[in-house]
Amino acid sequence: MNAAVIIVMDWAKYTIDGWLEQFGAWCETVRMKGGDLPDGLHINQIFWLIREAGKEFPKSKSHVRCEISDFEATQVQALLRSILNSEKVDFTTKFALICLIKNKIENKGLGRVAQETNQSKAQAAIMVSCAKFYLSGHDKRLRI
Question: Is the torsion defined by CA of 117, 93, 27, 64 positive or negative?
Answer without folding.
Answer: positive
